[in-house]
């Protein structure tokens, strides 16, 4: 009869007893690892999908393409971007802009260097807004002489200017 080592026998017996538990544990671990990997792939795919959706709906690109059309070209332009609200819009021109020009009948010998008075005020009223020019402050170049050219600069540069544009025009030798 051979001698059996009790420690070896106990170790082998314990291995046989726990083998089914180890196999079940390893199988569950492998299953959990596979599920975790699959969830990681789903998360990555969802992130890529969200990025693609954001790119399609960015300010420079959109799934929905807006466009404009005008029934009578040449009167104005219309543009639409990705954030424009869909719809049909009617444009009504209430009043067409016009310009108004006034000229004075000045003496024939008047030119840009003609002196004007250095005292008093000159007032312009346009649409109820008044601009006052103090003639004592009109000498813009500081030479002590107030000229028609200085006055046009004072009118055009006045902070209260209601829309007046002063210009010296020479026509047929006259200013």
From TrEMBL:
Residue ranges constituting the Flagellar hook-associated protein 2 N-terminal domain according to the UniProt record: 2-100
Coiled coil: none
Main location per the UniProt record: other
GO CC term (a single one): bacterial-type flagellum hook
Compartment list: Bacterial flagellum
GO biological process entries: bacterial-type flagellum-dependent cell motility
UniProt keyword list: Bacterial flagellum, Cell projection, Cilium, Coiled coil, Flagellum
Assembly notes: Homopentamer.
Family classification: Belongs to the FliD family.
Protein name: Filament cap protein
């Amino acid at each position: 009869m051979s001698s059996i080592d009790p420690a070896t026998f106990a170790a082998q017996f314990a291995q046989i007893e726990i083998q089914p538990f180890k196999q079940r544990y390893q199988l569950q671990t492998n299953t959990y690892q596979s599920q975790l990997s699959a969830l990681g792939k789903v998360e990555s795919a969802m992130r890529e999908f969200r990025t693609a959706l954001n790119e399609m709906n960015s300010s420079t690109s959109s799934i929905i393409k807006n466009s404009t059309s005008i029934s009578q070209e040449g009167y104005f332009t219309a543009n639409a971007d990705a954030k424009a609200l869909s719809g049909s819009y009617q444009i009504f021109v209430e009043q067409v802009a016009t310009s108004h020009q006034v000229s004075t009948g000045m003496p024939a010998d008047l030119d840009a260097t003609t002196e004007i008075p250095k005292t008093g005020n000159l007032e312009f009223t346009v649409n109820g807004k008044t601009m006052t020019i103090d003639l004592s402050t009109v000498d813009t170049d500081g030479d002590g002489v107030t000229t028609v050219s200085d006055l046009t600069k004072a009118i055009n540069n006045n902070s209260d200017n209601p829309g007046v544009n002063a210009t010296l025009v020479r026509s047929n030798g006259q200013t």
